[in-house]
Design a protein that fits this description.
136 residues; 2,3-Dihydroxybiphenyl 1,2-Dioxygenase, domain 1; 3 helices; 21% helix; 37% strand
């Protein structure tokens, strides 16, 4: 079996969050979804679990962070071109996401940030490794 990653996020409105991530290009896997959690697929090995606060609380004894006022993690997705980054952002903003800062251009990488309804922060970027500084 291939190694996989499952990112679990506590969300207040499961359907609204599912619709947001679907607009970004994630697809729902109904086999691993129910009324308290939705499995959203990014790729063959990367999955996003959107969980109600009640369900999320069943996996931890710690309180759920208020990600609208504090960062609990930064999640990054690479895309194949700057045009794809901009299209991803347009879809996310049209679906109700927010862009908390301007695009950052590092020469070899362009990065934009989007937050969902719960304040979960995603960094989307395009990296051209041929432009990566050689260190000389």
């Amino acid at each position: 079996m291939a190694k996989q990653i499952f990112i679990n996020l506590a969300v207040k409105d499961l359907q609204k969050s599912m619709d947001f991530y679907a607009a970004l290009g994630f697809t729902n896997n109904p086999q691993f979804s129910d009324d308290s959690g939705k499995c959203m697929v990014w790729s063959e090995n990367i999955f996003l679990m959107l969980l109600s606060h009640e369900k999320f609380s069943g996996f931890t004894s710690k309180p759920i962070a208020d990600t609208k006022s504090a960062v609990a993690g930064l999640f990054s997705l690479s895309l194949e071109s700057l045009d794809e980054v901009n299209l991803f952002m347009t879809k996310g903003l049209n679906a109700g996401g927010t862009e908390p800062n301007e695009m950052r251009d590092y020469g070899f990488m362009q990065q934009r940030t989007i937050e969902d309804f719960d304040g979960h922060t995603w960094e989307v970027f395009y990296m051209d490794v041929s432009k990566f500084p050689s260190g000389e």
